[in-house]
Design a protein that fits this description.
The structure is a single chain. The longest helix is centred in the N-terminal third of the chain and has 19 residues. The chain is α+β, with helices and mostly antiparallel strands and 355 residues long. The chain is built from ten helices and eleven strands. A hairpin with a 4-residue loop joins strand 4 and strand 5. It has three domains: 69 residues, no CATH class; 98 residues, Elongation Factor Tu (Ef-tu), domain 3, CATH 2.40.30; 156 residues, Rossmann fold. The strands form three sheets. A six-stranded antiparallel beta barrel has the order 1-2-5-4-3-6.
Length: 355
């Protein structure tokens, strides 16, 4: 019988090692394979393999003990790559971003969403609408508080008209900004904007009357800005803030004499209706515009549009405080006819502009 020539194998156990060595000696005299077939961990005299580790263990030393041929550089590089897994770091941006930075971040997220699950992660579908809250299926990678486009028209115009209220198991709860539920119906598409609820921040806000999303209410152009600041952010701590060292006058002698108020201090005006809380706040704004250089922000929540219009005409009309108001006053209005979401976001918008 003819003996079959065996090819050299990289991985040989202890039992087959001796037999394979005999075969190589007999059929491979022309090639000098003795140096290449030199086993790891064996002396010149001993031909028996003595593994120190159990063969079932999956450690690196067990893998090396099974090798009868010295590992090459490629094998060593693979072992090193397995031993050091790459760490996945997520960059969290807390500062305000420019248009270019937002564009780049959105493009990266869109590409990642397509690679994860395609269009299912970018678009969803309205299933039901109840009490101003829409139940949406899909959008698996969306975040809480992110703005969305609801309807084909808003998706085409890139106009955000909704916000993610809560993330439930299997569906989302989305509330509407405009409250126009007649234009939205079941089956409409919902698309992500990859941007949390934010407003433009710039000096162009001074002398304007806006809503909770920084949209103009005075009939002028939109706010032009390269920076956007998130509305729902953590407030600055006490230690980084400056101490209260400058007094602030309200213009009311009784309040200034009995209650000392400083710049940067929080003061609550509480009382029953029709007792003069708004008039006290407006007197303080008039005093600051006349005698100091303090920036003033007035937020009207749940008031009538007629009363806010009177305040707008008083400060920004042809009067005594027109010049000072154009440079140091911002009016934010969320009237009773607006949706509950805008009334909820109005004080956060005022604090974001102030900070």
């Amino acid at each position: 019988m003819k003996q079959v020539k065996l090819k050299p194998s990289l991985f040989l156990n202890a039992k087959s090692y001796k037999f394979s060595r005999v075969i190589f000696k007999k059929w491979s005299k022309k090639r000098s394979l003795k140096s290449k077939l030199k086993p790891i961990g064996l002396s010149k005299r001993s031909t028996r393999l003595k593994p120190k580790i159990k063969p079932n263990s999956k450690s690196k030393s067990a893998v090396k003990s099974k090798l009868l041929i010295k590992p090459t550089s490629s094998v060593k590089s693979k072992l090193k790559s397995k031993s050091k897994p790459k760490s996945k770091l997520k960059a969290v941006s807390t500062k305000s971003e420019s248009h270019a930075e937002i564009r780049l971040r959105v493009m990266r997220k869109v590409w990642r969403a397509f690679s994860l699950g395609g269009v299912k992660t970018l678009q969803g579908k309205v299933v039901s609408i109840k009490d101003g809250v829409a139940k949406v299926l899909g959008l698996k990678t969306i975040k809480s508080g992110e703005m969305v486009y609801i309807g084909a028209t808003n998706i085409r115009d890139h106009k955000a008209n909704g916000m993610v209220l809560s993330l439930n198991k299997g569906y989302l709860s989305i509330v509407f900004f405009d409250g126009a539920l007649t234009n939205i119906k079941c089956g409409d598409r919902v698309q992500r904007s990859f941007r949390l609820t934010s407003i433009p921040i710039s000096l162009n806000l001074l002398g304007r009357t806006i809503d909770a999303l920084a949209s103009p209410l005075d009939g002028k152009s939109f706010i032009k800005s390269k920076r956007f600041q998130k509305v729902d952010t953590k407030a600055i701590g006490i230690i980084p803030r400056e101490s209260v060292r400058e007094p602030m006058q309200t213009g009311v002698v009784a309040v200034d004499a009995l209650t000392p108020i400083g710049c940067g201090q929080r003061e609550l005006i509480i009382g029953d209706r029709q007792t003069g809380k708004t008039s006290l706040a407006l007197d303080s704004i008039i005093t600051q515009l006349s005698f100091n250089t303090t920036y003033c922000i007035y937020v009207g929540i749940g008031q009538k549009k007629a009363s806010v219009a009177k305040i707008h005409d008083f400060f920004f009309g042809l009067g005594l405080f027109e010049k000072q108001s154009r440079n140091r006053l911002v009016l934010i209005c969320s009237s009773s006819s607006d949706s509950a979401v805008l009334q909820f976001l109005a004080p956060y918008t005022g604090c974001t502009i102030g900070e």
